[in-house]
Design goal:
The chain has about 270 residues and is α/β, with parallel strands linked by helices. It contains eleven helices and ten strands. The protein folds into two domains: about 10-125 and about 255-265, Rossmann fold, CATH 3.40.50; about 130-240, 2-Layer Sandwich (Dihydrodipicolinate Reductase, domain 2), CATH 3.30.360.10. β9 and β10 form a beta hairpin.
Length: about 270
């Protein structure tokens, strides 16, 4: 089957970095019910080279064109161009799957727009775990949610919060807490690092009530997240250690797999988890 097959949902991918390229390759290899229709990337020539090994090479188009060519638009781009992908997709009534969940917090109008157009915003679990349990607890009363993230210093490089506060991680020899605040504040200060905190906030008590700590830790080799939830229905602690991507240490290898799982869940006859 090809992406032009009427039995397939057409998928467009905005961004071909560590996440987008992995998703494109998986779609090309075959996910029943889905077809790769188009991609968009900042460097079209590089994108064409990266896609040359696919069985069916999709067109490389402008960000805003994805919504015209796809039923599902997957955002895997830098947060700075989030709206250029999201708004056309949601305005066209598409299914929108954002990897930059933190950027969604800065565009609450898109959720209202989705209500008007019939679009759906499907947030992948990303590099986190246990969002089903948090969502279930949120149907009752959650008293508190706290997340502590530890990353190798290289995994936090380039974060706006570090630059704005003059925090230099060069030669760090012991763990350093570089941020403490809300998930919303953390997503703004570390847009490429803690999309997981934004997803956690959306699943539970909201990004302004979800507490977040971020540590630069030279002793860890994996991106580690520990979440503590205290609710009237349950009290639980979850921890995950994600292997950083070779292409981008700020992204865990599990992140593109989470996007792929979310896409598969849209068409699978059996979906496990709420």
């Amino acid at each position: 089957m090809t992406p032009n097959d009427n039995s397939l949902l057409r998928v467009g991918i905005g961004g071909l970095g560590a996440i987008g390229l992995a998703v494109a390759r998986k779609l090309d290899a075959g996910i029943p019910g889905l077809g790769l229709a188009a991609v968009s990337a900042r460097d079209a020539a590089k994108a064409a080279r990266n896609l040359s090994g696919l069985g069916t090479v999709p067109p490389v188009v402008r960000l805003a064109e994805l919504a015209d060519l796809a039923d599902i638009v997957v955002e895997c781009a830098p947060a700075a161009v989030f709206a250029e992908i999201a708004e056309p997709a949601i305005r066209a009534g598409r299914i929108f799957v954002p990897a930059s969940v933190g950027a969604l917090l800065s565009h609450p109008d898109l959720i209202s727009l989705a209500e008007e157009t019939g679009a759906r915003i499907v947030v992948p679990t990303g590099a986190l775990l246990g969002l089903d349990a948090v969502r279930a607890a949120a149907e009752g009363n959650i008293r508190s949610v706290t997340m502590r993230t530890r990353k190798p210093p290289a995994g936090l490089a380039g974060a706006p919060h570090l630059a704005e506060n003059g925090i230099d991680l060069t030669g760090l020899s012991e763990p350093l807490k570089v941020f403490e605040g809300t998930a919303r504040e953390g997503a703004k200060g570390f847009p490429a690092n803690v999309n997981v905190a934004a997803a956690l906030g959306l699943a539970g008590v909201g990004p302004d009530k979800t507490r977040l700590e971020i540590w630069a830790d030279p002793d860890v080799t994996r991106n580690t997240h520990t979440i503590e939830v205290d609710a009237d229905s349950a009290r639980f602690t979850m921890a995950i250690e994600n292997v950083p991507s070779e292409e981008n240490p700020r992204t865990g290898k599990i992140t593109p797999l989470s996007v792929i799982a979310a896409l598969r869940g849209l068409v699978s006859p059996l979906k496990v988890g709420s």
